[in-house]
Design a protein that fits this description.
The complex is a heterodimer of chains A (217) and B (214).
Chain A (H helix, E strand, L loop, with lengths): L1 H11 L11 H15 L9 H15 L10 H18 L18 E2 L5 E7 L8 E6 L2 E8 L2 E6 L10 E2 L5 E3 L6 E3 L4 E3 L11 E2 L1 E4 L2 E6 L1
Parallel strand pairs in A: 1-10
Antiparallel strand pairs in A: 2-12, 3-4, 4-5, 5-10, 6-7, 7-8, 8-9, 11-12
Helix pairs in contact in A: 1-2, 3-4
Chain B lengths: L2 E3 L12 H7 L1 E3 L4 E2 L2 H20 L2 H15 L7 E2 H23 L13 H4 L5 H14 L3 H12 L4 H8 L3 H42 L1
Antiparallel strand pairs in B: 1-2, 3-4
Helix pairs in contact in B: 2-3, 2-4, 3-4, 7-8, 7-9, 8-9
Classes of the chains: A alpha+beta (217), B mainly alpha (214).
Amino acid sequence: MRGITRYVEDLVRSRRPRRFKAGQEDAALARTAIALRAARPGSGAPRDEFVLRLHQRLAAELDPPVPGRARGRRAFLRVAAVAGGAAAAGAGADHVLTGHGTASAPAASIVPDPGTWLTVATSADLPDGTVLAFTAGGVAGFVRRADGRLHAVSGICTHQGCRLALATAAPRLVCPCHGATFALDGAVLAHRLPVTLTALPQLAVRETDGAVQVYAP
Amino acid sequence: MRFAARASREPASPRRGALVGTVARLHAVSGEEYTDWDAVYRDNVGRVYRLMFAKVGNRPDAEDLTTEVFMAALRPLRLPAPTPAVRAYLHAACRTALARHWARTFGEQVTTLPEHVETLFAGPDPDPESAAASLAGQILAALPERYRRILQLRFLDACSVAEAARTLDISVGSAKVLQHRALRRAAEVAAELVTEVAAETAREVAQEAVTEAE
């Protein structure tokens, strides 16, 4: 039984499962664990970094080395840059990951220059005690109302820029890439990375004429 | 450059703003056929990855399998070729790679891909995350409350055992036992669901045969 227990634990913790000799009953458990794990929010999309690296590997393998024929490579890099744009916007340039083992470093605020107030929800959509995911302008984030006050944080993991998902049963944000978790106020809750994670940057948020707005680029 | 944003196909809702909506719909405009490997890759890398993730449930394996599929499949591919033919070919490559993966790791075919091209590959704008969520949702919905809660906390919300135990107000040991029992029950439910789906498919096939005979 140890093999399958460890296998399931690896899946839940987003590690590569270790191999073991499985019986039919183990296979049924593994199959179910996979079905459940695959439904974790944010699991479906490949990392931009991976897509780009594999493209480079394929180009090296398949494209004949003709000088002056840079081929779809540059175009591809541009598309990847667009895809990474949301991440870059959330994780500002000041979030350099340094140090070892510390759980959290203080967050900056995102103050775009220039920015505008963009509506992300109506006031009615956001009663007290609720959280909403939003994308506005160049930022993705989460806005919530707690004790009557509005707060907004970036929705991009400060580790490698993966998009955070709202957990379904606990009030927290989960990173699909390495399983880092953040509190709704942006503080780092837990991660197993050998770096110091920065808390999620805050965004300015206001409420005007029944609209909840964030200040975004 | 053969890229076009197809964001206009559906109006972006104000809450899901423009940027992400546009990126999600950046597909190679392939028309009826692929003319080079680049187009094949761009249009299908996301599909292959998602297909693999749904079958192995973890990123390192899904990335390795995606790599394996494209490294093996692209070189022998004769282009230009019709889009559906290339997708069917990639689907076959995925089946082979997945079967090899399980033979290597488990010695037991834990998950398989059907012979026909799944909707994930055939559909124009697949959303396999919601497909995975709906299967998981059906399994979870059929479970008693405490079983559902522990599986949800651990698998969907990425809670540690200790966190899940705290949330459920039980000891860590009890949480482990509860999780194991819940997963065993979930596996039974999943098996029943699969049987139901198979029966449904068989009924449909029989119905089609009758219609054709008429």
